[in-house]
Structures are given as structure tokens and as C-alpha cells.
Amino acid sequence: MTCLEMRGFQIWKGYLDVATQEAVVAVVRQLVLAAPLFQPDTPYGRPMSVRMTSAGSFGWHSDQRGYRYISRHPDGMEWPAIPKKILAIWDRVTRLERPPDCCLVNWYGEGARMGLHQDRDEADFSWPVVSVSLGDDGLFRIGNRTRGGKTESVWLASGDVVVMGGDARLTYHGIDRIRFGSSRLLSRGGRLNLTLRVVT
Ligand code: MD3
Ligand code: FE
Asked: What's the rounded Cα separation, in Å, for the pair 181 and 165?
């Protein structure tokens, strides 16, 4: 297995084999049945193009009141537990004793993107964030610790795992576009990304 190092990000290409990817998709389908995907509004009023849901004690949310973690789905149900299959990826790649308390599920349909941003709604930036890509390829852009400056891009494919720790934790990043239909993992296309985070 190869690990790319880009601006402090560890990018493990092909970390999950196809059987594991299929098993993870199956548990994500169960999650989405318990806590349906929704389309958050940005604080600026426009809906995000990415659909989201979460598992764990906290789920990420955004609306006119801002970005934050909430302890229930916007429809009122509790977030489902983070499936063991997904926790096992965190354990294997971080070797930390502490489990994550949020698994954010991002679903990108045709044309969906995520602008450059920092993840700074968590209490302690010394914990890493782990990202798992499934389905269609996504063009991941990595910037700097402040807005602006040169950026670098890398295509993330199904089964790739990215670890953002240390100095990279507050780096600006985003998904410029996906190659809709590039993977056969999800029968109707699209890209799923899971991010595992320690929130509190
Ligand atoms: C770098 N998601 O959910 S994952 C996000 O593919 C997010 O859906 C993208 O950015 C996606 O916030 C990129 C890679 C990622 C996730 C979290 C990070 C990179 C990160 C947190 C800190 C620094
Ligand atoms: Fe992010």
C-alpha cells in the first residue's frame, strides 16, 4: 500500500479493499435509513450541494444560526451509533485509545462540491480527523493554514483513507468536483465520504 504525504496529510491510496468498501457501504445504508440524509443551509442562506447525516454522540449541522455539532438529527431522532466496521478503520489507521464521537457522512451527487474551508467546530485540534472515500472519484484540494496562497490537488478514489493530524489539522481543504459515474461501487453513482472526528 502506498501513502502519499501532501502538506502534512497522510493519503493512503487503496487502504480498503473492494470487499471492505462494499461492507462499509452496507452499514452506511443502514445508517441513512435510521438518520436520513439532509441538505444543510450555509449560514449565508444557500443550501450546500452535499447531502449529509451523522452517526455517534454528535452530528454536524449548519443553518442560518451557524455551523455546529448537535446531539440529535434535525428531524429529532438520536444519531445512530458509529458502526463497528467504521470504528475499526479509525483504530487501524490512528492506533489511538480514544474512539471518535462523530462520523459525518457526506454524499456527493452529480455536480456537488465543497468549497475550501477549515474544520474548526471541534474542541481540541490535537485529535486527528480520518476521512474515508467511497464511490466516485473526488478532486480534493489542499490549501494552507490561512486563506489564500497556492493549493495542491489530488484525486481521491474509492477505498482511499486520509489522516489529517498535527499541523495539517487546520489546513484549508475542499472537494472541487467529482467524476460522476467513475466507480461501480454505488449502483446509482455518486461519492460518499466519511469523516471521523473527536468533537469534545
Ligand atoms: C483536513 N469533507 O466533511 S475529507 C468535511 O471529501 C470535508 O467530503 C471532504 O472536508 C469530503 O469537512 C474532505 C478530508 C478532510 C476532512 C476533514 C479535515 C480533510 C480535513 C479536517 C481537517 C483538515
Ligand atoms: Fe472539512
From this structure: 31
